[in-house]
Amino acid sequence: MLIARSDRLREQAHIPASIENGRDDPLRAGVVRRAGSKTIGAPNRTHLVAGGVTIDAIELNKDQSEGYWFKVIGHEKGDLFELLARLVTRMRQGLACTHLEEDAYGLQINDRGIVRARIESDADGKTDMPVVVIDGRNISWDEFGRMVATYTGFQFKLELRDLSDDI
């Protein structure tokens, strides 16, 4: 679903009024697939914010929790096609890089030893603890703690970044 004031956004972003059908619309274009034939559809949130435009693409999991979430920010008078291209590139890069694998012991951090995640609130409301979203999956702190327990004695670096930053 696209959430935008599209006439105003088109005017602000200099998109010709002749682009009227979704097939040619940069705000609705593109589907990106990830492993397992799962897809993330067209960007589904476009916002005109102070000094710029943001476009988000959000995957909804079967349980309606938010999986992958990609965001780009551009100048309000910038080219939306260019901004959309940046979003699609970010989506492809994010979907190509996995951090978890499933083995006989359940989900584990893969051999690369790198985890990129997003912090979210617990949608089920079972706890006041947040969850981390890794590879589009909601992972509880307990489950994440079990995954990192195999790295006892190792060092790690935790760096908190905005959703629109490249990591």
- Calculate Rg over CA atoms: 18 Å
Helix content class: 10-25%
Strand content: 25-35%
Q: Helices and strands: which structural class?
A: alpha+beta
Name the strands of the widest sheet in spatial order: 3-4-5
Q: Please, what is the average pLDDT? A: 77
Shape: elongated
Which sheet architecture does the biggest sheet show?
3 strands, antiparallel
Poorly predicted runs are 1-30
Number of helices: 3
Q: What string gives the helices and strands in order?
A: HEEEEEHEEEEEH
Explain what you see.
The chain is α+β, with helices and mostly antiparallel strands. It has three helices and ten strands, in the order H-E-E-E-E-E-H-E-E-E-E-E-H. The longest helix has 17 residues, at 80-96. The protein is elongated and about 50 Å long. The model is unreliable at 1-30 (pLDDT under 50).
Key descriptive features of the protein:
167 residues, alpha+beta, 3-stranded antiparallel beta sheet, elongated
Summarize the structure.
This protein has three helices and ten strands; from the N terminus they run H-E-E-E-E-E-H-E-E-E-E-E-H. The chain has 167 residues and is of the alpha+beta class.
List the helices and strands and how they pair.
Blueprint: H1 6-12, E1 32-34, E2 38-40, E3 45-49, E4 52-60, E5 66-75, H2 80-96, E6 100-103, E7 106-109, E8 118-120, E9 131-134, E10 137-139, H3 141-148
Antiparallel strand pairs: 1-2, 3-4, 4-5, 6-7, 8-9, 9-10
